[in-house]
Amino acid sequence: MRNRKIFITAAITGAVHVPSMSPYLPITPQQIIEDAVRAYEAGAATCHLHTRDPKTGAPDASIELMREVVSGIQRRCDMICCVTTGASQMMSLEERLTPIPALQPELATCNAGSMNFVLADIAEKIPDGCGWEKPYLTGTRNNTFSNTYTGLETYVRTMNANGTRPEFEVYDPGMINNIAYFVKKGVIQTPVYMQFVMGIQGGIPASVKNLLFLKETADLLLGEDHFFWSVAAAGRYQMPMAAATLALGGNVRVGLEDNLYLRAHVLAQSSADQVLAVRNIADALGLEIATSAEVRAMMGLKGALSV
After folding, report:
1. Where are the domains of the chain?
2. With a threshold of 0.70, does the pTM exceed it?
3. Residues 6+ apart with CB under 8 A from 128
4. Which three-class secondary structure state does DSSP give residue 107?
5. pLDDT tens digits, residue range 68-103?
6. If we measure between CA atoms, which residue out of 114, 97, 16, 23 comes closest to residue 63?
7. CA 277, CA 89: separation in Å to the nearest integer?
8. How far is C-alpha 208 from the geometric centre of its chain's CA atoms?
């Protein structure tokens, strides 16, 4: 579905990067809130949220932390909060689903299939003696990020029951086929919202050819008027893929979850730095940036007062 305006998502902290990689990675609830608000002020309509242990920086899906983050953002701005259900690939289905009935967010991520989500190479970039960081990263070599058909249906039905629109995280083309299957079964409602996540080890590589293939596959299986799409690309691929996505009429996700840098050898000091960089590209292409209110209307979201 081609938008008259494009929108930007800021992925604030994630569960991929570790604190020793950047002093700017948000860790505490207050740091996550501040980064989200700065991204909103820079032009991001939505934020993609994970939480971390405030003391160690390790991924932590505590509902108390997520409640503090979401309520803190909503007190300060009108940003749409997209809550993760992929907090850690080591968590059970029940643990990952906890925020949905508890918070009933407007948006929540729904990973659209199982995959090898490998972070082990990141461990080579950090020094020894960083506590949990290296074992956590290297442990992903022997783990599968499980998102079975039973799990996928459970996620979607739980979101439907709580007035939460799923944001489907698509790491390879087969996951679009999974989504199409559940659309035909009447489990997933249209228009579908998909985030094409590219450049993760274990998923589809980040290239313009692969992006075109993802978009063409979605057009074929879902119909081009029956889905919204956005692209998140990891690491150094973030801005080149953002530019290609905007040129093709898609929406863009940036943020410190996906890339710690603004440009080669220059750390981004906040997700807002990357949001502003995307805005500059959009301006050069003559594209308008949608507000949170416009995105809510576009997707039929229920509004922050219902969270």
Report:
1. 8-300
2. yes
3. 134
4. strand
5. 999 999 999 999 999 999 766 667 778 888 999 999
6. 97
7. 31
8. 20
